Amino acid sequence: MNSKLEYKIKTLPDASGVYIMKNAQDEVIYVGKAINLKRRVKQYFSNTKGREPKVSAMISHISDFEIVVTKNELEALILEGNFIKQYKPHYNILLRDDKQYPFVRIDYNNDFPRVEIARKMKKKANVKYYGPFRAAHSIHKLIETLGDVFPIRTCKKDLKEGVPNGRPCLNYQIGRCLGPCLGNVTKEEYAQVMKQVSNLLDGHYDELLSNLRTQMQDEASKMNYEKAAVLRDRINAVESVIQSQIATSASGKDSDVIGLAADEDVCYVQVLCIRNGRVEYSDKREMINNRDQIEEDLLESFLLQYYSSSIDIPGEIVVPYLPQYADVLEEMLSEAAGKKVRIHFAQRGEKRHLLAMAQENALQMKINETKKKDQAYEHRKASLAELAAVCGLSSSPHRIEGYDISNTQGVYSVASMVVFEDGRPAKHAYRRFRIKTVEGPNDFASLAETLGRRFRRQMDGDDKFLAHPDLIMIDGGKEQLKAVQRVIEGMGIKVNLCSLAKKEEEIYLPNNDIPVKLPRTSGALQILQQLRDEAHRFAITYHRSIRSKKMLGSILEEVDGIGPKRRALLLNHFSNLEAIENATFDELASIDGISAGAAKNLYAFFHEK
Fold it and tell me: Which is the CATH superfamily of the domain at 557-608?
């Protein structure tokens, strides 16, 4: 432990708060909360016996830490969640939150609301959401069914009561829409139909079905059989919606039931979302578990992250065990939901049955994912063995590096180095280069410069380039490969090489002009293709970033009072030209190094344009 850490630990307060651990690169690697900061942080650097390997690995990377003192545990819990979301630290339990299930949305702020699909829930008065729906086809089927049952509009016209807006569409002609675009439907008449839509979506079916059956019988008694048949079809459509939802609870309360199943690296979570006494949907999530946490900590982290940005928080959350800070979590969730939220440990009865169902689903999810991982591992293992045979390696390659060049007619030329370890991307090892010695579009010389710089940095002991590749793949044909081979052999470096020519997907090897052509189903070819595509993506992303900044810099040269230093300040502060264009005078003038006069010229330049 360095002297700076020792001093900081000695001066820690006996107060609640959040601690932020950083590595030598000043990157946040872990965020934690504590009732007593002094006691908790000190524990990391003492009592090393019996500590999990992952915790020891994390501590070995700590070079500094910061603290934020809070008034109480609730503030610490909220702040911890915010920091985890902001920094996504490597050693924290992280929720894989890349799912965005669609919702049904009705905006009652419009005179004639539509039933539409929304990807996110946003807090807004008089807007109601239903869902989310895990399967896209189910939400489209639901909206189609609502259109069969109710004469509601599907167009996106801006309609006002009593104001005609264009010709009516086919839906009006065939009786599937009341035609508010004609201006002869009142808001009250349309609202009655939307009330029925809401009743159906809310699960209040009985009154709706009763009314539809009465209308059907009336039309049939009058021998209006076509109208009766339409009503019959509407009844069938409503019943199909009812049957798609499983009745589970007699209480009718809104609740979420959470099941967990964890292994060493991932915690699988199944959430059964019960609304109006029915399981409306289930949500499957994964949490990256980097510290072999106990399940109580995993559950607490999940609750904190899952509900931190949700506006659909039920009044009850059923869990398989109570987390340590259950009372604090209840207080936080109640404040976010604007109502009392209870975290309930179900031990018996109906809730226990639902909990067992959620737990079984989470376990099945874990089993399925483990099988997938095992199958993928075996496939990668076989593919790497095949690749070793193709390239003449003595064993399967562990580390493969791929290189590509990107430029625009030789301008802003860059190179990418991507790394696969055991057949999977190792993004922490990716590197990128600005081409310095080559002018014009010369990929051969650019690749030679890139590989030369890469191995010189390895020979100089640069930590970022110490790992030696088992195989290097070049994006290109035999000439690109020869250019790289010459520079590497000239440096006395021994490394296996190959290149992949895109047009025919041919593999070239050193000292052999005849390429190897593998079938498209070959696992070895697929690994090289993935590596090549990833190198291309990484290179072109870097190239676009540089090109965008250069173009922005050239535009700023036209502004009086904006010289090289101020251009650099603006480029560091704003991500793109649009951000500068949209900045207010006060925002521009607030940047250190930008005078009021320069900010005035800059603001006038873009707004006059």
Answer: 5' to 3' exonuclease, C-terminal subdomain (1.10.150.20)
